[in-house]
Specification:
mainly alpha, 11 helices
Amino acid sequence: MTVADPAKCEEYLRRIGYYRLSAYWFPFRQLGQNSNGTFYLQDQFKPDTTFKHGTDLYAYDKGLRLIVLDAIERIEVSVRTEFALALGAIGPLAHRDQRNFIGRFSQFHPPRTQSRYQEWLYKLDEKAAHSKEEFADHFRTKYVGEFMPIWIAVELLDFSPLSIALSQLKHAEQQKISASYGGTSFRLIQSWIRSLCNVRNICAHHSRLWNKPLVNQPAIPRAGEAPDLDHLATAPDTNKRIYAALAVMRFLLKEINPRTKWADRLKDHVATFPQDAPNISLRDAGFPDDWDQLPLWN
């Protein structure tokens, strides 16, 4: 690796840390091959690699995470509201009755002593009892000993427990939520929310995002099920990289806020991808050629 300015290199390493920054060097390392045919990353870099290539990629990824978090925040708030409306139509404390969720949520098997539903409700009650949020403190003071109705309690749910409860709703409530997103299949919605929850955690921990394989891949719609996303099915393993999650975010935001300029901001940022760096490309993040010309993004 060429280090043109050693003093600046040392400054970056002190400020960011070696291991966080070295995650952005992986694409620039040479590949070796074991005797059994498997590949591994060597300690040598590919020719023409510079320290600036890594820092440029780090800066690009930081900007990408901020744009992604903005979209996920809007989606999370929307899903939280739809979840509260669907259960609230049953009753203010519908979330406290396990009969309002599918059966397997309330099942448990040894050595577990509680069902997933009981664990979920316990954690929610812990937050209700100890949250420092003004609305929670006001409720505890005014309604001593009472349980929060769903439209208040839902504000205490982080994205992960929200996605868990969402996936356990009964069919009638699933259909209400699907209708709020243009009739999109609930099978897709729950898969997408689970995937975006994982993406949010990556961003929240300031981890590398741009080409990281997605642990929870978003489900790809069947042909014609969500026409703007049909292109996701044209290449194998398309949903394993961040582009698939970005496409899902765009699809949901078009339903949540059709006038949003988020797609334009994303396109502007992607245009800053360090093109001069060898051995990396947007394809590593799952972006198809001419992606920004697709109907989804326009």
